[in-house]
Design goal:
It is built from 2 helices and 3 strands, in the order ββαβα. It has helices spanning about 30-35, 60-65; strands spanning about 20-25, 30, 50. The chain has a 3-stranded antiparallel sheet with strand order 2-1-3. It starts with 20 loop residues before the first strand and ends in a 19-residue tail after the last helix.
Length: about 80
Amino acid sequence: MLELRPNCECCDRDLPPDAAAMICTFECTFCAECVATVLAGVCPNCGGGFSRRPVRPAHLLVVYPASTRRVLKTEGCRRGST
């Protein structure tokens, strides 16, 4: 099950469960703006591409809540960084 992480790893923007977030196959989570403008569509952690994060229906968020663990690239976010 997806964690639905609460923020963009690049700019730390809040990404509520229904936000238009982007994820890679490892669930690295970024806002659509950072994916397009900073990362050029390439995950800085694994080098893979992104897909739109699915939206979990509200009634299921009650049973399966989104994660509260924030992940942030403190050294900055750029294409090819690790």
